[in-house]
Amino acid sequence: MANSEDDEDAIVVVTAATTSLIACYYQYFVEKTLLRHSKGVRVEEKVAIFMLAVGHNERNRVLQERFQHSGETISRHFNAVLDAIVQLADDFLQPAGPCTPDEIRDNPRFYPYFKNCVGAIDGTHIPAMVSEEEKPLYRNRKGFISQNVLVACSFDLQFHYVLAGWEGSAYDARVLDSALTRSDKLIVPEGKFYLGDAGFALTPSFITPYRGVRYHLKEYGRNRPKDAKELFNLRHSSLRNAVERIIGILKRRFIILQAQPQYPYESQVKIVLACCIIHNHIRRECINDLFLDGEDVTTIPETDPGIPEDNDEGARLGRNRDRDLASELRNSIADAIWNNYRRRRYIFILKCPTLIYMDLGV
């Protein structure tokens, strides 16, 4: 068993940057009686063990040496903290509210067109370790073993909803269907919608870009949108970029999500959820979040990898009606954005004709 000086030295390694978080978790765990001090191991040390494991993907053997505990003790406390953090999901994963996000309301490129948009959704693949028999189910289209995780987030980079555990071979659209029908379902406020990529079905609650239309453009310069659909896709891409950013930040913040973790699959699923909960906690508590600097944002695919056909005729008819309503909504947004864009550009041409000639290369 480690003495008090060894314990303090080991904890300092982690708490140098996360002291306030560990103190806050200590308060949550004690108040909710989710964790207790045990003989020779305080709650703070248990949390430090967990943080090192998920933040740096430290293996059990390394943690044994660092904290001077047996492998069984390390594993037991890791799982205790994991279960405790997962129980905080309702406190830190809050569904979207009815108000227009500040990021939209304060930006004339998005307001009032996207005033009913509450966030963005996407699926991401987290490396997984499963049995040989299960590998075909968990092998994704890129060829590696993973779990498919659906996330919904706000534009200030906090998770609204996380559904982990689906096989890597599952389509994003299928995972979303599950998220909308399970008991702990994704809640979309009445009259509101999320932005999704072309891998999801177009519905009034999930607005996707136009298919077969250029997606990565610039509003100014030589590669400008040429019609309402292209401009809509451009604005859509700019807003939906939030979910690409939050996924990138999550994977850089928690190195354990970048490699196959040496844990039972049930624990692997819980680890993803726990990391999202901690991310939200950090976003709320830490004004200066270093992981927001120098983000390496991945690009958004222009086309979807394919969506399985729905063989249920009744469900298909219902979805067709939803798609028609969503198509009308999307068209109305695209037309309003385009009309305003053309009007503003016409005024700009009248005021600055010389700059327009230069822009056109005349």
Give keywords.
single chain; 362 residues; alpha/beta; five-stranded mixed β-sheet; 12 helices; 50% helix; 9% strand
Structural write-up:
The protein has 362 residues and is of the alpha/beta class. The chain is built from 12 helices and 5 strands. The protein has helices at residues 4-31, 43-56, 60-67, 71-86, 89-92, 102-105, 135-138, 172-181, 228-253, 265-285, 313-351, 353-359, and strands at residues 117-127, 146-153, 159-167, 193-195, 206-207. It has a 5-stranded mixed beta sheet, with helices on both faces. It is elongated, with a radius of gyration of 24 Å. The model is unreliable at 6-17, 296-318 and 355-362 (pLDDT under 50).
Blueprint of the fold:
Blueprint: H1 4-31, H2 43-56, H3 60-67, H4 71-86, H5 89-92, H6 102-105, E1 117-127, H7 135-138, E2 146-153, E3 159-167, H8 172-181, E4 193-195, E5 206-207, H9 228-253, H10 265-285, H11 313-351, H12 353-359
Percent of residues in helices: 40-55%
What's the gyration radius in Å? 24 Å
Largest sheet: 5 strands, mixed
Distance between the termini: 79 Å
Low confidence ranges: 6-17, 296-318, 355-362
Strand content: 5-15%
Tell me the strand order in the biggest sheet: 3-2-1-4-5
Q: How many helical stretches?
A: 12
Number of strands: 5
What letter string, H or E per element, gives the SSE order? HHHHHHEHEEHEEHHHH
- Give me the secondary-structure category: alpha/beta
